């Protein structure tokens, strides 16, 4: 006969499994929705730019921000004049574009491709001679102008649902419990005044410096959820871990799914943050559907969440029924609360651009 402790553990495992299934179907629902599809289709119309053009855009956007011409310090969608018109957006009066360098290519032909001296440039409309091969090559660059979406007006820009920061108090003792587990792994927990100190993120795990930093200018519920996420990174994604080289998207899905489970066991509903966050990162992993990614990480996530929950001496939801992902279930336990949704998160692309490999950042 199982002892009470063992049966409680089994119950908990079953609840975590159930919770993960609900997370998976919530992700599935989100990524199959119309808003999501439209946002992806929109983003797909912006081709990747060269590194030097990205730098040119950033520098000029920073100048426009300092001059008060654009509302956000980070560029969002950047398009040429005609491309913008094609998307139903007109450049607003008085907004000057950012200069980038557009490649100018020429066609070259030769009958002896291995001889670099033999290539001749073809004129406009000129056909190669019989037996000649033709290649295009960049010959120069000419200035072209692009505008940030915030410099234009017109049809609304489709955006995927963004993670919403949790609001309200943190469950009693949870911060200290999680911080203790982070410190057991040899990391120092730092609280920083604002996101400007940690690359615009909510939290950062630095495996080299052995620090976990969480910003303090958000509600305690969001801070403690962030710490749970970073603890997930500490336990699962250090450079010494087998899976250290996996796609960053998978790491983010794992850390945030674990944070959802830890939050749920303490009566916190993190779904307003977790579902868009997990969906967005899962969608960045090439070659698989987001739902497949979430499913594939389930076992690792559950094990990690279980190990964390076992080591905490916090008051956890009595009957193991977590709230969240199921609006019809009444909430139990003294820590149960309904977090409200506040400010949207910064632009995903902007956050991506400064990612460094030794650092796991939380925050889209
Ligand atoms: Zn993260």
UniProtKB/TrEMBL annotation:
<feature type="region of interest" description="Disordered">
    <location>
        <begin position="318"/>
        <end position="364"/>
    </location>
</feature>
<feature type="compositionally biased region" description="Polar residues">
    <location>
        <begin position="353"/>
        <end position="364"/>
    </location>
</feature>
<dbReference type="Pfam" id="PF06114">
    <property type="entry name" value="Peptidase_M78"/>
</dbReference>
<feature type="region of interest" description="Disordered">
    <location>
        <begin position="111"/>
        <end position="132"/>
    </location>
</feature>
<dbReference type="InterPro" id="IPR010359">
    <property type="entry name" value="IrrE_HExxH"/>
</dbReference>
<feature type="compositionally biased region" description="Basic and acidic residues">
    <location>
        <begin position="117"/>
        <end position="132"/>
    </location>
</feature>
<feature type="compositionally biased region" description="Basic and acidic residues">
    <location>
        <begin position="325"/>
        <end position="344"/>
    </location>
</feature>
<dbReference type="Pfam" id="PF08401">
    <property type="entry name" value="ArdcN"/>
</dbReference>
<dbReference type="InterPro" id="IPR013610">
    <property type="entry name" value="ArdC_N"/>
</dbReference>
<feature type="domain" description="IrrE N-terminal-like">
    <location>
        <begin position="203"/>
        <end position="270"/>
    </location>
</feature>
<protein>
    <recommendedName>
        <fullName>Serine/arginine repetitive matrix protein 2</fullName>
    </recommendedName>
</protein>
<feature type="domain" description="N-terminal">
    <location>
        <begin position="19"/>
        <end position="108"/>
    </location>
</feature>
């Amino acid at each position: 006969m199982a002892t009470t402790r063992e049966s409680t553990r089994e119950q908990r495992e079953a609840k975590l499994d159930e919770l993960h299934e609900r997370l998976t179907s919530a992700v599935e629902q989100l990524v199959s929705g119309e808003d999501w599809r439209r946002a992806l289709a929109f983003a797909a119309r912006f081709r990747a730019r060269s590194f030097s053009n990205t730098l040119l855009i950033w520098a000029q956007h920073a100048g426009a921000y300092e001059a008060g011409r654009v509302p956000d310090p980070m560029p969002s969608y950047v398009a040429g004049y005609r491309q913008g018109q094609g998307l139903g957006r007109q450049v607003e009066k008085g907004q000057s574009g950012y200069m980038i360098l557009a490649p100018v290519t020429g066609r070259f032909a030769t009958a002896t491709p291995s001889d670099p001296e033999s290539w001749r440039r073809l004129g406009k409309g000129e056909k190669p001679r019989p037996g000649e091969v033709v290649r295009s090559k960049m010959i120069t660059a000419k200035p072209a102008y692009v505008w940030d979406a915030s410099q234009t007006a017109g049809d609304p820009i489709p955006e995927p649902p963004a993670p919403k920061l949790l609001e309200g108090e943190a469950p009693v003792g949870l911060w200290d419990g999680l911080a203790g587990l982070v410190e057991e792994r040899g990391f120092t927990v730092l609280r920083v005044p604002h996101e400007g100190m940690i690359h615009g993120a909510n939290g950062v795990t630095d495996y080299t410096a052995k620090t976990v930093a969480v910003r303090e200018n958000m509600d305690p519920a969001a801070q403690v959820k962030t710490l749970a996420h970073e603890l997930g990174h500490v336990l699962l994604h250090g450079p010494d871990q087998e899976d250290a080289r996996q796609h960053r998207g998978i790491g983010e899905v794992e850390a945030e799914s674990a944070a959802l489970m830890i939050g749920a066991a303490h009566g916190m509903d993190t779904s307003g943050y977790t579902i868009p966050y997990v969906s967005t990162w899962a969608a960045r992993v090439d070659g698989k559907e987001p739902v497949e990614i979430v499913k594939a990480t389930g076992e690792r996530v559950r094990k990690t969440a279980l190990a964390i929950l076992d080591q905490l001496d916090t008051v956890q939801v009595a009957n193991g029924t977590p709230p969240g992902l199921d609006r019809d279930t009444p909430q139990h336990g003294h820590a149960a609360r309904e977090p409200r949704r506040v400010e949207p998160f910064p632009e995903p692309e902007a956050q991506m651009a400064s990612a460094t490999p030794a650092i796991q950042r939380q925050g889209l």
